Amino acid sequence: MGSPVNLESQTKTRRRLALLFAVPLAFSLLFFLASNIGERTNDRVRSIQNLQSALLTLLSLAQDAESSARGFLLSGDDGYLVPYNQAKSRLSSQVDYIRVLEREFPKDKDRLESAIDSAGKVFDAAALTLAALQNQDFSKALNVFQTRAKDMDSLRHTRDDLLSSLDRDLDAAITYQRRLTYFTFFFFLTGLVVMVGVLFSLYKALVTYLYNSQAARAELEQLNAELERRIAERTLDLSKANEELQQFAYVASHDLQEPLRTITSFTQLLAARYRGRLDDDADEFISYIVSSSLRMTDLINGLLALVRLRKVSLPRGPVSMEKLLKDAESSLQAAIRENNARIEHSPLPFLAADPTQITQLFLNLIGNAIKYRRAEDPVVKIGTRREPDEWIFSVQDNGEGFEQQYAERIFGLFQRLHGRDVQGTGMGLSISRKIVERHGGRMWAESRVGVGATFFFTLPTTLEPGRHQSASRKHSSSPEKVTG
Predict the structure, then answer these.
(1) Secondary structure (DSSP) of 282-334
(2) Cα separation, 360 vs 311, whole angstroms
(3) pLDDT at 266 over 70
(4) Which range among 17-31, 98-112, 347-361, 469-483 shows the weakest confidence by mean pLDDT?
(5) How far apart are CA 123 and CA 69, in angstroms?
(6) What letters, b where the CB count within 10 A reaches 16 and e where it falls short, cover 349-385?
(7) With pLDDT > 70 as the criterion, what percentage of the chain qualifies?
(8) Which of 126, 184, 386, 446 is the most buried (most CB within 10 A)?
(9) How confident is the model at residue 478 (pLDDT cuts 50, 70, 90)?
């Protein structure tokens, strides 16, 4: 137990620490809110400026249309029709743009619609004028041009009114933005002063605590020693629990096979004898039981294979990787022929590895490449290259592929990206990675959807025949601990 002085000092220190963390958290929240408000204000300013620009552009287009009609009316030169046609082609998109911006200015909606309507009337007047001139009716064209001139004046008046209103809104937004900046700067300075004060107070408290609490340091060392002892005990308990859990998984999986085999056999017998004699629902339910029982059998076999990986010791003799690849191809001959698959490989090395496990590794990777194929014939390419410390193997296919973000998830136990569409237990890649890791290597994948996937795994160069035998002799010549 610590002394009352030490307890009081610790309590004060905790309070100062809490204040030290609370102050930046509170000011961070304030800065975040101020930043959001500032962004909204900036968006408002941009929207106002965009609307002002859009109104000016609309007026410019209307002026181009009016000027073109006037020029063509006075001179009859077709060259004056070019600005009118250009302005007319841009009018629709400009009106759409103004109506998009209009949603942010509900109070100005009526005036904006009035401006759009006036611009449309200007273009209509220009079109009527040009049509009359093309029909050689000069007096009608002049009459239309003169009587519709008020539409342009109305557009200018509406534009001026809107721009004045928008200028007031813009000034208000900029003023609010400036005040927000001052407010944020003030809180920054205040927070800085508070932080410096808290840090100084905390520094004094820590110095006082370090120099005046020898008993607390001794107690802390004792607590550390106790904690290390508890960690060691917990680590040992976890190790024993993990070993017991592996044993339980092995025994449970093994013992579950017999009752599951009985369920599967009798359900298949029911399906064979009573199919068609019961109603359709009964046949469907029986088929569900059979498929689920078979899938459960596959899952149990996968679990047993995963548990056995931890129990089987690795052999020390070198084997040909090419021979193990051919053994895997032989086991997959039916799938290879059925899918017209082609397996290609470069020269593979001799390494000291478990033949059964490496064959299973090739079986899993090639089997997946055939299983997750596309419409074209599967092509699987196995390659390898030697680095200073490891051999890097690659198994590349031209199948469906997957998104790269799932490149790590697929190695998890029971993880499947294709759901139940493709038969499987979701344990093949997990077992494959365990096999590689047991040999001292690592495994990863790269893929693009619709292009294919490449699975990489490494095996250390210490498994090469000469180096492996040298390492084995060195290990056997080292003194062994004798237990009685």
Answers:
(1) HHHHHHHHHHHHHHHHHHHHHHHHHHHHHHSPPP-SEEEHHHHHHHHHHHTHH
(2) 16
(3) yes
(4) 469-483
(5) 9
(6) bbbbbbeebbbbbbbbbbbbbbbbbeeeebbbbbbbe
(7) 68
(8) 126
(9) very low
